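Sorry, any thoughts here?
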Amino acid sequence: MARVHVESWRQTYRGLMPDSLLDDPGLLTARERFWTGALTDERYSSNRVAVAELDGAVAGIAMSGPASDADATWSWQLYVLYVDASHHGSGAGPALLDAVLDPHEATALWVADPNSRAQAFYRRRGFVPDGHTRTGSGVREVRYVRRAGTS
């Protein structure tokens, strides 16, 4: 899971995030700690996590949980959805999204901008930008929301 997370960041965010972050030799270890906590820490027990496996290898990862944005008017939030570039178009992305989100729950997510591929993916699944942006780790993000019952 950590490997897919790191490789997906490198594939997706090169040129958006600082190379020093993406090439940090400790990045994989940091993501391993992240996933260990996400999967074992009681604080995250209500989160939903899914893995897509193709040809015997982890091809994608997803995680959602209760909304954390201070101004949330939705109940659920997508925190992670990455599919290794070699598996784009395989159906892993939609399957992961469906595995961690209930279409009956209003949901939000943050997506890098620019990241036209991901933004189009979320728009096709009923998410629309709500006008909010933020910047972290040098990456500008746009918030997308989906009303309950939309998929």
